[in-house]
Structures are given as C-alpha cells and as structure tokens.
Amino acid sequence: MIVVGCGTGRCGSQSLFRLVLSQGFAKCRHEFFLSMKGATDLEKYKVPFGSKSYSKAKLLDSFNLLRDSNKEKIMFDIGPYYLDIIDDIVNMNDVVAFSLKRDIDVFSDSFSDYYNKVRFGNNYFKTNQYWNQVGMTVPEVMTPDIARILHSKFYNKLSSKDLVEINTDDLNSEKIADSLSRIFSRDFSFKKIHIH
Question: Which domains does the chain have, with CATH numbers?
C-alpha cells in the first residue's frame, strides 16, 4: 500500500513525516521525488523537475515504479508534487491519499519568508511545475497575498477529491492519532512533536 500526503509545502509535512516514521510500521519518505539527488540507488525514480523535459506522465511513471517496488510494504511519502497527478492516483486501489493543510495566514507568512530566502534557482517551489499545478506563474518575489492565492487554489483542487484532510494544528492533539489510524488502517500512538 502507498500512502501519500499532499500539501503546499511549509504546511508541517516534515513534522508529520517524523510522526509516521516514529510508529515504525511504514517505509517513510519526505518529498521523496525532490530529495534524490546524488542517491545512485534511486536514479530509476528520478523526475526532471525544473527542466523542459518534465511532464506529469514522467512523474506518474516514477510513482507507478514506486508502487511496483512496494507491493508488500506500507510506503509513505508526502510532497506538493502529488497535486499534479492527484486525478490519476486517487482511485488506485493500492493508494491512499490525504491532504495536509496549514492555516492560510500562518502558511502565507511562512511560505513567503521561505520563498524569498531561498536563493537557489533550482528550488522546486520556484519551478514552473509547482505553479502550473494551480494555474499560476512563478513569482519573482513572494508576498503573503500571493501565498494566500496559492493556498486557496491548491486546496480547492484537492477539496473535490474527497480526501481526508489533516489540519496542521491537529498534529499536536490526540485527534491526529484517529485521523492517521483511518488513513493507514492501523492503530497510531499519539506523540507530541515540534512543528516546522
């Protein structure tokens, strides 16, 4: 089974990753398709984000390869790129998808601050792929107002998919254990975590 979380980034995904990892029953990744550079054993999953050769079909091919490689396990990943293929994966019988959502005001401040500090042109949040998902163009400078528009468009696309939605504020309340128990179909133990 593949369990994927989809969120804008700057939405608490690292914290949720650590919480799922702490349970010990899943092979866990955080932004798997974005963090493979230099990992030669993972070259077969490489997705050309940020290049003209990127396509949804290539991301979907890599995702299907990931599914084929993890038939006997529970594989968990969370990342913003799943929005690009959500229509394709949401009805796969071995895939469970959910969304992770942060309060729009907290998100807009955090995202704009991060976006403007990251100077590397190769950063995924500054690629056409990220912004094309929601029908926007890459901003040179991020403002909280642009981040709010992004947040609204991103989660509007997810809201029509009838996914379980986890609010970042719930990550340190006991109801997170119930939500994750439903998503993973097994008992979750509640742990307090530091939210990034």
Answer: 2-184 (3.40.50.300)
Residue 162: which region, alpha, beta or left (left: phi > 0; alpha: psi -120 to 50)?
left
Alpha helices in the chain (DSSP H): 13-23, 56-69, 82-89, 104-117, 128-132, 144-159, 175-184
Render pLDDT for 159-194 as a digit per residue (tens, 0 to 9). Answer: 989 899 999 999 988 899 999 999 999 998 887 777
Residue pair 100/31 in contact by the 8 Å Cβ criterion:
no
Q: Helix or strand or coil: residue 15?
A: helix
What does the block give as tokens for 32? 């798997």
Residue 195: CB atoms within 10 A of its CB come to: 17
pTM for the predicted model, two decimal places = 0.92
Contact (CB, 8 A) for 113 and 37: no
Distance CA 127, CA 106 (A): 23
65, 3 contact by CB (below 8 A): no
- Rounded CA-CA distance 15/102 in Å is 12
Question: What percent of the chain clears pLDDT 90, i.e. is strictly above it?
Answer: 81
- The string over 108-143, giving b where at least 16 C-beta atoms fall within 10 Å of a residue's C-beta and e elsewhere, is bebbbeebeeeeeeeebbbbebbbebbeeeebeebe
Residue 151, token pair as written in the block: 């947040």
